[in-house]
């Protein structure tokens, strides 16, 4: 049985509309100028179906995303993909990778480590004691939040 991924994935787009964040959870995302794209790019300089993000699973059960130029049927975009300064047809994304789709249209990919949440009962010794002598100021002001 595969382990659950302890990461969140974030794709931040900067285009003619400004900066937008897309938390990645689905297995496939279409990226482009087409209004039906999952991640729509607002620029005349990008293709209608510029790229595709595909979530893949590693042997350890964790996930990562691969970006592929064009659509999944093999039709490439007009400009291609520039990832970390190199033009590539596809790329397995890593934390802080930079993707350029066209002039003034880019994205940054982030892998965010989720904090583990304790599943057991709280530690019986994890308590805080405050004695009235530790309080500073006038006792009449202690419940005042002005």
Topology:
Elements: E1 7-15, E2 18-24, E3 28-32, E4 39-40, E5 51-57, E6 63-69, E7 81-83, E8 86-88, E9 90-92, E10 98-102, E11 105-113
Parallel strand pairs: 3-4
Antiparallel strand pairs: 1-2, 1-11, 3-5, 5-6, 6-9, 7-8, 7-10, 10-11
Question: How would you characterize this protein structure?
Answer:
- With 146 residues, the chain is an all-beta fold.
- Helices cover 0% and strands 41% of the residues.
- It has a single domain (7-113), classed as Tumour Suppressor Smad4, CATH 2.60.200.20.
- The protein has strands spanning 7-15, 18-24, 28-32, 39-40, 51-57, 63-69, 81-83, 86-88, 90-92, 98-102, 105-113.
- It has a 6-stranded antiparallel β-sheet with strand order 2-1-11-10-7-8, with no helix packed on it. The chain has a 5-stranded mixed β-sheet with strand order 4-3-5-6-9, with no helix packed on it.
- It is globular, with a radius of gyration of 23 Å.
- It starts with 6 loop residues before the first strand and ends in a 33-residue tail after the last strand.
- The mean pLDDT is 84.
Strand content: 35-45%
Main sheet record: 6 strands, antiparallel
The Rg value, from CA coordinates, equals 23 Å
**CATH-level-2 architecture:** Sandwich
Portion in helices: under 10%
Distance between the termini: 55 Å
What class, by secondary structure content?
A: mainly beta
Counting DSSP E segments of at least 2 residues, the number of strands comes to 11
Given the structure, what is the number of helices?
0
């Amino acid at each position: 049985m595969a382990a659950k991924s302890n990461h969140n994935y974030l794709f931040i787009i900067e285009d003619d509309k400004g900066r937008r964040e897309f938390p990645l959870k689905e297995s496939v995302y279409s990226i482009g100028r087409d209004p039906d794209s999952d991640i729509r790019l607002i620029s005349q300089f990008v293709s209608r179906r510029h790229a595709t993000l595909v979530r893949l699973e590693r042997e350890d059960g964790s996930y990562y995303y691969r970006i592929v130029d064009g659509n999944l049927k093999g039709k490439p975009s007009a400009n291609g993909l520039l990832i970390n300064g190199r033009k590539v047809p596809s790329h397995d994304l890593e934390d802080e990778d930079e993707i350029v789709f066209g002039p003034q249209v880019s994205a940054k990919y982030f892998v965010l480590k989720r904090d583990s949440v304790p599943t057991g009962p709280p530690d019986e010794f994890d308590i805080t004691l405050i004695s009235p002598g530790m309080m500073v100021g006038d006792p009449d002001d202690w419940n005042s939040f002005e």
